[in-house]
């Protein structure tokens, strides 16, 4: 049997090397390629035309670290100048194009010089702070920006990430930090925030006196609303141990603390919370007494100009699943008669 000359396999003109050695494979024409022209498993050729090279994750990490420190932090070799919040960033278009928002801005902004200049107007986005925007910008270069997210800036980072787009991991991380930041001490600011974002569900948790505008938070807006509502209705009574009114070991003044918090809650949220079947603070009578005490406190604050009342229904089916029902009626302004 005659031997077939040995051939050196190559990919795009390069010899195939394994651990630094040239690979010589003897093959016959009928075993190197199948009838469809694809290489056989024993062929030194690869289907995409490239030899498989050793993969080292450290190399990629070094590249990303270099991009973040030399590219983002110092702005070396920048080709794009970004203006936002009276701050100027020297950045790189190829990196910024990862953000759909910035990619659109770059493609639609007129250029008058060799270096691209773009302006980001955040006057209509008060939730996007300078710190939050900077962290989101840095994330376009490297995930190391995640280390800068704290409970104090998580919401601003989430807002910036949602605005820029293309950074789902950052948004999810910031959203988780937002959820974890909800506590007895921080529920006040979260309630104020809740009244500024729209509701996609008719759960009665939006204040009718304030018409919320479209939210930069996108899908996270309703998720945050649901989280705040759950914390207010379920977690807060448990933390303050109001769910066990007969327990002498309950947190001192836990009920009073809960009263103070609910006295600042927007009406529709207050109504939905107290009427919710998951608001467990004892019997229906205990819930009725709690609502009555809250309304008394609200008269001197958030409920000025309105008359709020609570009713305890006897029997079932009066108000759906709740025996406690809260209503509100706006007081009519007095009419003054002007004598001619």
TrEMBL record:
Start and end residues of each BTB domain: 78-142
Gene3D superfamilies noted in UniProt: Potassium Channel Kv1.1, Chain A
Compositionally skewed regions (Polar residues) per UniProt: 1-23, 30-54
InterPro entries, sorted: BTB/POZ_dom (IPR000210), SKP1/BTB/POZ_sf (IPR011333)
Region (Disordered): 1-54
Pfam annotation, one family: BTB
Name recorded for this polypeptide: BTB domain-containing protein
Native species: Crepidotus variabilis
Organism lineage: Eukaryota, Fungi, Dikarya, Basidiomycota, Agaricomycotina
């Amino acid at each position: 049997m005659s031997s077939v000359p040995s051939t050196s396999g190559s990919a795009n003109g390069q010899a195939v090397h394994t651990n630094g050695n040239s690979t010589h494979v003897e093959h016959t024409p009928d075993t190197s390629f199948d009838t469809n022209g694809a290489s056989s498993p024993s062929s030194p050729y690869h289907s995409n035309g490239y030899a498989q090279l050793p993969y080292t994750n450290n190399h990629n990490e070094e590249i990303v670290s270099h991009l973040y420190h030399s590219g983002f932090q110092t702005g070396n070799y920048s080709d794009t100048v970004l203006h936002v919040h009276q701050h100027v960033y020297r950045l790189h278009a190829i990196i910024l194009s990862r953000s759909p928002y910035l990619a659109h801005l770059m493609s639609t902004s007129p250029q008058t010089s060799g270096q691209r200049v773009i302006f980001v107007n955040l006057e209509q986005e008060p939730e996007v702070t300078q710190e939050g925007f900077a962290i989101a910008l840095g994330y376009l270069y490297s995930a190391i920006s995640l280390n800068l997210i704290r409970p104090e800036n998580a919401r601003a980072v989430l807002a910036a990430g949602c605005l820029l787009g293309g950074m789902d991991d950052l948004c999810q991380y910031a959203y988780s930090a937002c959820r974890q930041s909800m506590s007895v001490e921080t529920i006040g600011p979260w309630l104020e925030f809740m009244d500024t974002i729209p509701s996609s569900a008719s759960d009665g948790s939006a204040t009718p006196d304030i018409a919320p505008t479209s939210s930069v938070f996108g899908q996270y807006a309703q998720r945050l609303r649901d989280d705040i509502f759950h914390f207010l209705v379920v977690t807060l009574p448990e933390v303050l141990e109001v769910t066990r009114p007969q327990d002498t070991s309950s947190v001192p003044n836990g009920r009073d603390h809960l009263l103070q918090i609910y006295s600042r809650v927007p009406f529709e949220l207050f109504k939905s919370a107290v009427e919710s079947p998951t608001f467990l603070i004892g019997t229906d009578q205990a819930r009725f007494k709690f609502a009555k005490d809250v309304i008394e406190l609200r008269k001197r604050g958030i409920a000025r100009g309105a008359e709020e009342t609570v009713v305890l229904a006897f029997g079932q089916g009066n108000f759906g699943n709740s025996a406690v029902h809260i209503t509100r009626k706006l007081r009519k302004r007095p009419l003054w008669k002007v004598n001619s």
